[in-house]
Write a structure and sequence with these properties.
heterodimer; A: mainly alpha; two-stranded antiparallel ribbon; 8 strands; 66% helix; B: 307 residues; mainly alpha
Chain lengths: 495, 307
Amino acid sequence: MDETHDPLEEAVPGAPTTAGPRIGRDEWVALEEERRTRRGDRVGRLEARLRGVPWWAWLTTFVALVALLPVPFDSGYVRRVAFDTVLYMLLALGLNVVVGWGGLLDLGYIAFYGLGGYGYALLSSGQFDVHLPTLVTVPVVVAAVAVIGLLVGLPSWRLVGDYLAIVTLFFFQIFITVTTNGDHLSGHDVTGGSNGISNLDPLNLFGHDLQVASEGVFNVGYLYVALAFFVVVYLALRFVNDSRTGRAWRSLREDPLAAELMGMPVNWLKLLAFAFGAATAAFTGTLFAALNAGVFPQTFAFPLLITIYTMVILGGAGSQAGVVLGAVMINVLLEVLRSPGDSRAVFYAAIVLGLAGVYRLSARFAAVLAATAALGFVAHAVAGGLHDSWVSGTTSGGAADLIAHWVIVPVHLADWVPAVSYVTLVSLALALTLVRGRLRLTLLVPTLYLAAFVWENVMLSKPEATRFIVLGAILVATMVARPAGLLGERRMEIV
Amino acid sequence: VDNFIQFTVNGLTLGSVYALIALGYTLVYGILKLLNFAHGDVFMVGSFIGFGALQALGGSADPVVPVWLLLVLIVLAAMAGCAVLGVAIERFAYRPLREAPRIAPLISALGVSFFLTYSMQLMFGAQQRDYDAFSLSGGALFFRGIDIGNVRVPLLRIVIIVSAFVLMIVLWLLVTRTTTGKAMRATSYDREAAAMMGIDIDRVIVFTFVLGSALAGAAGVMFALRAPASVTIGFVAGLKGFTAAVIGGIGSIPGAMAGGLILGFAESYTQGYVSTRWSDLAVFTLLIGFMLFRPQGLFGRPDIKKV
């Protein structure tokens, strides 16, 4: 069954291979290469074929798919989500410059996004009665924020790693404090305080006002503008990355000290990375402000920062295609988690697919599924026999009837039940990562059933908390299990 | 003058809570060179555990044990709970990344922080939890106290300040006078050399997390005795604790205490003499200034990197 099995996979890096040491050939690199070309089966051939497709073909296909999205879907909701996804892709691309290429942990990233939004708002609204044309506003705002990015990047000359993260995080906090309290800046109302600024001008391109909604429906023009922005930013950043600067960034990320000794202008490179990230975020911010016809300080908050980070990390920091994929996956996931029916489907599908991924289509996979199902019916019957109200609660959303015969859903949850069941679930799930073999299989069954219980009774009713818990968990799990993300390059560290 | 005394006492109370949080950052940073972003959330969880223990012991209006014992018990409960939480975080989120590039555990820590905040919101909701310290012993903690000039310093504040200092002294003795403390100092000085000398690094790291998280738990209870707790307090408190640690010189225990107090005074005086809206801004400016001009802090040694 397992044709891809190869003893080399378990081999310790650096252990003597069958070929034996050869002169001029690094063993570790050779091993890595062998591991890459190892898969000769159908999946391997498909992988090799897909890797041969040039990047511009991927980009064209992807953009065409998004552009054609409004054809089958005429609901404003789907179009709006598509637009938001493109914004997230832009944000992820920008963050990828700083984190993925520059290797700098910039926690003030969302402040640049916010500055872009506020910049647009101040220059095209009734706040100060300034109404500049879009083609002036956007470049001015982007350039200004890029300069601010340079300034915020200045501490990176002296600070590395954690310290830089904290200084940028403080910059973010200052941004929030100023925008929230900015209605009393020395007696002037600058940012509108917590009410923000509304009634912004719509985008105006080539003499046409792009109204946010035409006849009450989301104007699909914004999707196309955003998509065009995306293509421009993607290509621009791609060319930058292929240039001298891009190569210098990567060497900076891998080893700042070595890069400096090679005569690279390390400080300038760091600032450039910050400025590019800031400019991309500001660009996106203007688009966001124009579409919503308003900016509010609550939008640019910490959860948004974590969302973008999760996109970049999950997709693979350093890979443009990866972060775009991450943005699409995370935003779609977050949208799906809003509605109980859809999120239930995703939850059970994720569990079954996850199990299939771990155990393949083996007897163990079937056994776990069957045992979990059986445990469910038994537990349900026992609970129902003891007390009728323990199982006669209702859940909402699709397939609820089916679920209600399997998961215990009490009419009324005691106060302690959510906390205790949730903590037990998290502890069990963590314990699963520590045990192996038969013990893990046995432990897996009650964990799965408990997960279903917690999902139906606790998490479905609080989608907001659930969405962010999922993000946090993805972030940690990606870092621990696959730091390169889905499409990122695997880092080769030769010591 | 009365105002000044009032603000000073406020600063001292705030500062001792910040110092306790800062100690957790400093301990972990000293050993692992890792900025534990999740520390502020451990603090938040501590205040919730304390609240749970308070309810379990009959609530503040009608406790089943004497007030002093009640306070000791809820602090101990929070410390124990947070110690377990801290060890779990280390085991599952940081240990697998110990040899990874430096940015990896930081991102993992961000994820843990986010996970904890929203897990607590899932379980307990976003509303505030008030310990209602006023009802404890019929308001005696607020009305009785020591008079300095015309200002009466309430008993509650004295209790918070004194117990914070007791905890810090205990920690200081642990680190300087015991074998485990010596092992911790050795590990923080040079991890590899310490391992070669037969020190069990994993045990030292776990012990560090136990200490740091327990202090955060105690700080959580002390914070929540003054102001209501909610799931979002961890973020800002964590930032301020970190600021305090940096001001004092990260990795240095007396530095963290001094940094906490300085920060407490700075915040209290800005709130009193300037404006409450901008007090956070003062704190952040102070930090950025320190970071740029004296990154090693007041008590830290400059970090000289050998290649």
